[in-house]
Amino acid sequence: MDMTEQKPVTQATAAKVSPMPDAETVTQVQHYTDRLFSFRVTRPQSLRFRSGEFVMIGLMGDNGRPLLRAYSIASPSWDDELEFYSIKVQDGPLTSRLQHIQPGDQIILKPKPVGTLVHDALLPGKRLWFFATGTGFAPFASLLRDPETYERFEEVIVTHTCRDVAELTYGRDLIDDLLKDEMMIELIGAENLAKLRYYPTTTREESPKMGRITTLLKDGTLFRDLGIDGIGPETDRAMVCGSMGLNLDLKEILEGYGLEEGANSDPKHYVVEKAFVG
Ligand SMILES: Cc1cc2nc3c(=O)[nH]c(=O)nc-3n(C[C@H](O)[C@H](O)[C@H](O)COP(=O)(O)OP(=O)(O)OC[C@H]3O[C@@H](n4cnc5c(N)ncnc54)[C@H](O)[C@@H]3O)c2cc1C
Q1: Which residue has the higher pLDDT, 99 or 8?
Q2: What percent of the chain has pLDDT above 70?
Q3: Which residue's CA is the nearest one to ligand 1's atom 45?
Q4: Where do the domains of the chain lie, and which CATH numbers do they carry?
Q5: Is the CB of 275 inside a 6 Å radius of any atom of ligand 1?
Q6: Which atom, in ligand 1's list, is nearest to the CA of 95?
Q7: Which atom of ligand 1 is found nearest the CA of 74?
Q8: In 3D, which of 148, 201, 152, 194 has the Cα closest to residue 175?
């Protein structure tokens, strides 16, 4: 093309056509309740992460600046795309808008994964516990689909507590698919998937198992239901992801069993991450 034929680009046009930095394209959206949805986006080629980590994602704000929030990557590290599991806060700066995304839309994704809910932060053990409430299931959705989780442990127990039954759907469907999907069975191994135990509970709506996980731990119900003697530092490792209050309560319970908190630089018996701030 003859460059002299190009029309001068005005400031306004340039701003409009300039691509959003760190843009990724939405490929799939699924809604579960009026408060929960999940979506998948393209994965930046350069992005490497460890299953369980989180990144900053968001949308361009009205002021022209990115509006970003921390989000756990719910897909495993081997997946071609990235999956996220999200709350819809009706007056939330990001999610009041994010809940309306459609396939083909773009979101911002900063490709700098971090986090403590990773295998590297735990010492080897026999049994791995994932304790999640609400969207705190997201990092475990990643780890549950990672073969390493089953290679490192003899038993993997995931507890998920929500107020209502419908709020368990994302996790329940994911685990059902994991156990049925031929590709996943081949990748992880049927004998490895047999190590997985799922323990969903609700706190408000009637369901087969009701109660806060902290109560069910303290009164021994969880152990009786699973036929397990208890939790101890020789055998058990745990990852916790819930509200600040839940995390603090679980920390106290786990420390009471003799477990110590680990970090990437100092792996120990359990790790904790906030599912959200506030
Ligand atoms: C390390 C980390 C990882 C996170 N991972 C996820 C994730 O995978 N999925 C996700 O939906 N959110 C996640 N969050 C929360 C997320 O960063 C935002 O807070 C959320 O997307 C709402 O953004 P907002 O701008 O709409 O509202 P905000 O102004 O951020 O939040 C408004 C209020 O809504 C409530 N709230 C926010 N997030 C949640 C939530 N997830 N569950 C219940 N109540 C909430 C809180 O009371 C908060 O004060 C994570 C937060 C942290 C710190």
Answers
A1: 99
A2: 93
A3: 276
A4: 18-114 (2.40.30.10), 119-274 (3.40.50.80)
A5: yes
A6: 26
A7: 8
A8: 194
